[in-house]
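Fold this sequence, please.
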Amino acid sequence: MATIIINEFLTFVQNKIDVLDEISITQICATNFSEIEIETGKNVLFESCGSGQRNVQRKGDDKKKKNIKDVIRLLKEVDPDMQPIFVAKDLNRLPPVTFDYIDVTRLLKEITALRAEVTDLQLKVTEEVTDLRNSLNSSAEKITSRSNAEINKSETPPPVIVPLSTQELSEGDDIVYTPTYRDIAKDGRMQQAKMICKRRVHTNENRVQERTTHDSTNLRNTSNNDEEEFKVVSYKKPRKQQNLRGTLLTSSKIQAAQSHCAIYVSRINKSVTEVDIREHIKEMGQECIGIDMLKQKRETNFNSFKVTILSSKIETFLDTGFWPVGVVYRRFRERSN
């Protein structure tokens, strides 16, 4: 079981060492405790857990602050389980921690750093959600186009209609139904048309049988006439032509145009302009084609720019040593509406 020692000075330091910085603890203790109390507490601490540690006797004007720093150093170096428990008999001797002892500059820096991290996290989440939405839309379009292509392939080619020759119809024949070319083109598939003709028979039974046999023979032997009567029109998708690239190296009059690309640069101070960024690029020994300030959807404490460059320079501009510390950059992607 740890030893319990009554000492207000050591009680305060032991309890506040994890929540206050060393400068704040030193200022508070130097203001509220006497030099004798501090030196006595230091000796008690070194006797309790300072085995192997040298207790330096401080002298001079900063004796009080140096003794406090020795106490803080020893409490940080010794395992908390090996330290005694310091308690206060008189609670009024424990100084309050007021706003006067807090380093406002350090606190503001921590708040600013935390705000920057939150903003950066929001920006990354927004970009990831946008990329995910675009990926889902692209996948849906591919699935739809693939389904349409499979449906078109599954459709069977329309059958060829073999009509009866108009010469086979007599003056007394009544045509009930004859499919037109408009009907065939609209439906997309040509169903075998049934032409029902009611003929007024003025001959005997033998003539009817002979005519029926003659019609059946014509239906089987009109393969050559089919091509003249009907033509199946089918749309053939034109074959995609592939681009070719020249390889001649000796020509100096004709030169290929270099492609362009863009870099997204963000987390830039509000006071920085396009001219400042262009001068920085020149100082790095490079050139750019254009610089545009991007409009933010919501108010932020920084500016973002679109830097247009040659595609051949993309590796140079994406190098980590090209941009200052804290600047966020990547290849530019157009926002989806």
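Strands lie at 4-6, 85-87, 174-175, 197-198, 260-268, 290-293, 303-310, 328-331. The chain has ten helices and eight strands.
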